[in-house]
Design brief:
The structure is a single chain. The chain is built from 25 helices and 20 strands. With 633 residues, it is α/β, with parallel strands linked by helices. The strands form four sheets. Strands 9-8-10-11-13-12-17 form a seven-stranded mixed beta sheet, with helices on both faces. The protein has a six-stranded mixed beta sheet with strand order 14-16-15-18-19-20, sandwiched between helices. Strand 15, helix 21 and strand 16 form a beta-alpha-beta unit. Helix 6 runs parallel beside helix 7 and helix 8 runs parallel beside helix 12. The relative contact order is 0.08.
Length: 633
Amino acid sequence: MPHSQSGAPYRLLDEIDSPGGLRALPATELPALAAEVRRCLVNAVSQTGGHLAAGLGVVELTVALHYVFDTPSDRLVWDVGHQAYPHKILTGRRDRMTTLRKKDGLSGFLKRDESEYDPFGAGHSSTSISAALGMAVAAQAAGEQREHIAVIGDGALSAGMAFEALNHAGALDLDLLVVLNDNDMSISQPVGAISNYLARVLSSRFYNRVREGGKHVLSGLPGMKDLVHRWEEHMKGMVMPGTLFEELGFNYIGPIDGHDLPLLVNTLRNMKRMRGPRFLHVVTQKGRGYAPAEGDPCVYHGVTPFNPSTGQMQKKAGGKSFTSVFSDWICDAAEQDRRLMAVTPAMCEGSGLVDFAARFPRRYFDVGIAEQHAVTFAAGMACDGLKPVVAIYSTFLQRAYDQLLHDVALQNLDVTFAVDRAGLVGADGATHAGAYDLSYARCIPNIAILAPADEAECRRMLQAAYEHQGPAMVRYPRGSGIGTQPSSELETLPWGRGEIMREGKDIAILAFGTLLASALKAAQNLDASVANMRFVKPLDEALVLRLAGSHRLVVTLEENAVSGGAGSAVNELLLASGVQVKVLNLGLPDEFIEQGTQAEQLEIAGLSVAQIEARIREALHGAQPGSKAVHAG
């Protein structure tokens, strides 16, 4: 079993390999156990990188939940997974924590096939309440008695899906406990002796016996329905005002100090005895117990490997990232056009909007984890003459598909989408891979789709998309490219036109996006022509047809699912034009590619330079399952 960075053993963790062992401890040992979990977490993440501050904030809550509830029989559903590293440590995975987010290692999120203690897989936020409620329905249908606990952060609670689930749960009246992990410091003031006392009172057997007994007595009298409701409200009103969650049908308790283990254990035990929908409001400190993370929880939300003694992080390899290119462009464009507004669904740092928010605070809108609202909000802006730019990850834009189609494209509104993390994303794995945006957006009328090959082209494409009248997407990958230096000017490029990068014979490689660099390397040994296609929609049809007419094999190359992607657009054009030529579509296979480095993931997908070359040779000279002849029907 691993020890701490200093080499000191874990007195309690070394004896515990499951929540069953945790529940055998006396309650007096729980604070010491929490300290060891926190130390183990810092030690592991310092080596692997990953999400840190959120997990540090829920150590005591995690210990208390597994101490009070009979997991895995009781279903404990964590939202997203950022806060679930302590959960992994306590559920038999401590010896593998240094494999977090690595190929064949522990996932940075929750996975059903990783542990029986992960009843629901989650990479995107705000799903926990819906999933736990579904499990509660399943328990009722099977006649089983168990608890269902959803732990959701205050950020995730901003999503409409969470409120949809709360509304449904209140109506079903099943046994469900929602724990709100509230680490927003602006609302932590109520935590203290009085609110802790109120939580103990509201969750106590005495209060609930009086509450239910009074309701029972009054409800037996004719015409007393309204009085019963007033009695319940006055009972709680004597000690705490009603809340939104009470109106939704939940028995609300809190807020309580999420770092007070005795209080957490006692409150959870009391709430476990209750029935129906319950809501526990727990206030925690993000980054708790590790000074650098306490000082800057935003920076330490997601970290690269770091020195646990100092908190100093390793610098990321590579040059200027595509996200940084976007950050510079949007600030420069906003200086020139006062109509430009930036919208993001809770991804200010990740999408590169920190500088924009500081320089143009009245033109910056972080709408929270509400992707659907973000897109329709931008559509509303565009209706009345503004020029919104929606900065969003490819994997999150999936959550707003109807809004993209119905609210933006159908009305042909002038909204620019800066789609970050397109393609494979490395350690975040399958849940965050931007593998489908070309497929799901290409079929929508009115939308233009641009895929830059490098950093300099990315800036020019962003400007071209912004100047385009109508919806346009620029999709670019995580990290940096080949290191081209973007211009400081707001330059554009010819609309809908690709570019020949290399002349060859027999083989024509049509590259969409940053795999152009791999195409050029492979082409050297193949003596192939290479085109930087730039536009997925509108496709440069003249260029495709010219290359198809002068080469024996047309190869399409993209970092998107082959199904419905850029290669499919080429196939459709060739078929409609009656051109008979052999075609090989190279892209992401029809499977989810798990975590690893981006290079490892490309290898799994068959898209390393050597694999691209080998697959093209086989398609040209022999049978290849992925190749096809395209001809007029």
